[in-house]
Amino acid sequence: MASAPNPASFPTTDPIQVVGGGVAGLGAALACARAGYRVQVQEQASAWAEVGAGIQLGPNAVRVLASWGLLEPLRACAAFPSALHSQDAATGRPLGSLPLGQRALARYGQPYATIHRADLQALLLVAVRQQEAVTLHTAQRVSDVAALRQQTPLLLGCDGIWSAVRQAVLNDGPPTFTGHLAYRGLLPMADVPAALRSNAVHAWLGQDMHAVHYPVRSGQFMNVVVVVHGPLPPGADAWDNTAVASDLQDKLERAGASAPALRELVAAVPGWRLWPLYDRDPMTGAHQHLVAGAETQGQRQATVALLGDAAHPMRPYLAQGAAMALEDAWALGQSLGRPGGLVQWAQTRWQRNAWVQARARRNGRIFHATGVLRWGRDTGLALLGQRLMDVPRLYSGPPFP
Ligand SMILES: Cc1cc2nc3c(=O)[nH]c(=O)nc-3n(C[C@H](O)[C@H](O)[C@H](O)COP(=O)(O)OP(=O)(O)OC[C@H]3O[C@@H](n4cnc5c(N)ncnc54)[C@H](O)[C@@H]3O)c2cc1C
């Protein structure tokens, strides 16, 4: 995956404006600067402190980071799990396993990594700061998108699931609450019950629930996510909330998730955050990635590209939201230098992102299955675990735009 610096065949010497400094925004700033463009990033937060917890990075996401020369900093802070094990959340019975580690490296040329979101953000930020062509502004909340469109030839909406840029150009309403609640916690590896203290990703599949845990911070911490069904808690912020551990314990009890090792792990987590999960239907066309610029009443309106959650918020059941944001950014950097490249970028990206969004929804139905579907899932995992859990089309990406 060569990254070819190719100064501006997208005709501009004016800076590209990036709204949002999350994974998509920092990735896009880096990709555009590496392609020879000047970039300004506007981030609403007053500092680059990062909320969130763990993130899994499949070989496709690691491939993007490697192409930007970020493998060494990734190695310094990530964990590289040896396997993905799935288990029954009611009994603890093993259901199926997918070796990662050397197998992922041999099959895909890049490892499978797990990382704290703050560490991913930090390594991107260091790389962006090394680019003289990028100016970073914090405490800058963009509210007047139309005015910003007049100041730049290209505006990148990287402002996440509640994107103001998306609303300004697509005006298609807010994302939808999925009816699923994600509880997220972090604990020192030394506090993890001995039976689960391992360098692996574990997925516990139950009725209307699942839990995932994996190492982060070079294996010094374990990230734990438990997803249950339930109504939007009254007064809940759409993003990140403190959570009450006993509520989660009650929900697990009701869902029959009583595997002793899982309950012990949940009890060991010192504090929980609650994230109501929202998404949108899978993308339906390139128009949801790219809105062409126009000239109205003598006023220029920039072309707008949407990246990351602004374009394709998805359920976290394929662990690919941040990965797709990185892929969007990488592909954009490859496209800008070519005539018609942006259109080609949007064409390639919407099809891949729509597929990933749909697959993430499907995974949710399989993870939380009841009745016959659950029986079919467990039988399939026992017989064909490795084949069912590997996703070559995903992990061999990103496709060249
Ligand atoms: C429970 C859970 C588990 C997950 N697990 C994984 C995983 O394992 N692997 C994976 O790849 N992904 C995972 N994800 C998804 C991943 O976290 C997101 O897809 C990813 O963070 C999206 O990045 P983004 O940059 O598009 O948006 P964000 O991270 O939301 O960044 C948007 C940025 O824009 C800023 N902003 C917003 N509005 C404005 C404005 N008007 N002006 C200026 N700035 C603005 C925000 O402050 C923010 O910094 C998970 C998500 C959840 C909820």
Structure explained in plain terms:
- With 401 residues, the chain is α/β, with parallel strands linked by helices.
- The chain has a domain at 16-175 and 280-395: FAD/NAD(P)-binding domain (3-Layer(bba) Sandwich).
- Helix content is 36%, strand content 24%.
- It contains 13 helices and 18 strands.
- It has helices at 23-34, 59-67, 71-77, 101-108, 117-129, 145-149, 164-169, 245-254, 260-268, 321-335, 341-367, 371-389, 392-395, and strands spanning 16-19, 39-42, 54-57, 83-88, 94-99, 113-116, 134-137, 154-157, 176-188, 201-206, 209-216, 221-229, 241-243, 272-279, 290-291, 294-296, 299-301, 303-306.
- The protein has an eight-stranded mixed β-sheet. A six-stranded mixed β-sheet has the order 7-2-1-8-18-15. The chain has a two-stranded antiparallel ribbon with strand order 3-6.
- The chain binds flavin-adenine dinucleotide.
- Flavin-adenine dinucleotide binds at residues 19-25, 42-45, 55-56, 141-142, 158-160, 164, 182, 184, 225, 275, 308-310, 316, 319-323, 325.
- Flavin-adenine dinucleotide (FAD) is lined by residues 19-25, 42-45, 55-56, 141-142, 158-160, 164, 182, 184, 225, 275, 308-310, 316, 319-323, 325.
- Structural classification: alpha/beta
Largest beta sheet: what is the strand line-up? 5-4-10-11-12-9-14-13
CATH homologous superfamily name of the domain at 16-175 and 280-395?
A: FAD/NAD(P)-binding domain
Alpha carbon gyration radius = 21 Å
Keywords:
401 residues; 13 helices; alpha/beta; FAD/NAD(P)-binding domain; 36% helix; 6-stranded mixed β-sheet; 8-stranded mixed β-sheet; binds flavin-adenine dinucleotide; globular
